[in-house]
Amino acid sequence: MWSRLSETGRLALACLAVAVGVSIHDPARAVISALIAAVVFAVFAALIPSTVARQERVAQQAQRPLWPDNATKAVAEAFGHPVYILDPQGNVRYANQLSTQVFSAARVGDPLNFSFRQPEIARLLELSMKNQERAVAMYHERVPADRWFLVSVSPVLSQVTSGQPSWFMVTFIDQSEIKRAEEMRSDFIANASHELRTPLVSLRGFVETLQGPASADPQATKRFLAIMLEQAERMSRLIDDLLSLSRIEMKAHLRPREEVDIRDVINLVQRSLENQAESLGVVVNTDLPSGPAMVRGDRDELVQVFSNLVENACKYGQSGGKVDISVSLLNEQNSSDNSGTRGVGSAGSVEVAVRDYGPGIAAEHLPRLTERFYRVDIADSRQKQGTGLGLAIVKHILARHGTRLNVSSRPGEGATFSVKFPSIELAERG
User: What is the DSSP letter of 267?
Assistant: First the structure.
């Protein structure tokens, strides 16, 4: 074997043999020892890079700040939504305070899926971690309440880990109000379409009748034209209410600043509805303070509010024969027990109440009275030419004025609709 080696090979083996202390005068032993030395050197050469790499990783981990660091936690707490910070395996490493208030507390170290056992959350996390990009989806929670959340999973890149995601941020943005608004808008469009379609179908039917069998019957023509006029007026009232509601909603964020004496509003409403009340056999009584009852508001809108309330009281409380309207000045000391004072003073609030003595309203209907197109008795409401939007308009106007409608009623005892406004003095002090 020694004789077959080239001069260069012999020299290399001789060097290795000398390096390990083997005599080169014994060629066989020199070759074997040199080969063993070569293997040992090769093993050490292979181990050195991995050892160095391991030492470098340890050094990098030592350089990495505590995770998540205080800055990251501060960002998570600054969000106005629930936020979770996850490691690359999807385990919770931090949850901001709001997340524990909105959802049940997630244990640090547990997978986020343990807290949200919903397939859409698992798929979203898997998608974001697999593609290393932001993923968004809607999450519908039915228990303990019906809520909708826009969930976003975003990988955050770290220079220390050479561009690989070191953690993920998961945010839950509450969309429940938006969803409810969308449902209300959809219901509103459906209801409005139905309310407009009904008189249109009626009009079309009468037109076809007048063009056909009743074309030569003057009495039938006269009767049908009267009904058609009534249906057209119903459509006109509905369209007017829809436009009114739209205008009010457009300026809902603007608080009215006009100084209004509620006594003037009530007197105007009483005069404008006097003939209608008389035709229904109803007497409208007013009980007003001797001095001004000043509030900040939109005069025309307040007239619309109380015209609607008094007109409803006359129509639906007709059997009682009268409607009472009272205006009370409530000071801050006695406002809690609803005792009123007559006369001028630094009243805390101004309360207006409209009471009828009709059949009253059952308790189950009271919470829904201000919903659009909600009617206690559909047939009776349409017979009395109601659009189903009047109290919804009242609700929106009062909301713009910073107050709300209160309703109290029992079957057989009539109904009272009341509104309490901050007086100008109280509003300016506040």
Answer: H
70-174, superfamily in CATH?
A: PAS domain (3.30.450.20)
Which tokens belong to 356?
């009828």
State the alpha helices, DSSP H only, in 217-365: 218-250, 262-272, 274-279, 299-316
Which residues share a beta bridge with 262? none
How far from 33 is each of 14, 24, 43, CA to CA, in Å?
Answer: 10, 10, 16
Q: What is the pLDDT of residues 366-390, one digit of tens each?
A: 888 888 777 776 545 455 556 778 8
- CATH class of the structural domain 179-248: mainly alpha
Tens digit of pLDDT for each residue in 62-100?
Answer: 444 455 777 778 888 888 889 998 888 888 888 898 888
* CB-facing half-sphere around the CA of 248: CA atoms within 13 A: 24
N-term to C-term CA, the chain: 108
Phi, psi of 287 (to 5 degrees): -130, 100
The answer for residues whose C-beta is within 8 angstroms of residue 387's C-beta and 6 or more apart is 195, 234, 237, 238, 241
Q: Which CATH class is domain 256-429?
A: alpha beta
DSSP notation for 333-383: TTGGGT--B-S-S--SEEEEEEEE-SS---GGGGGGTTSTT--SSHHHHHH
